[in-house]
Amino acid sequence: MANGLSITDVGVCLGRTQILSTVTAEVKVGEFVGIFGPNGAGKSTLVKCILGLLPLASGRISVFGSPPGRENRHIGYMPQSQNNLESTALSAFSVVAAIANGNRWGLPWCGMALKNEVIVLSNGERQCVALAQALLGKPRLLILDEPLANLDPHNQILLIKCIQKIRKSAGTTVLFIAHDVNPLLDVMDQVLYMAGGTATLGPVEKVFTSEVLSGLYRTKIHVIRARGRIFVVSAEGNVTETIRHA
Question: In the chain, which end has fewer C-beta atoms inside a 10 angstrom radius, N or C?
Answer without folding.
Answer: N
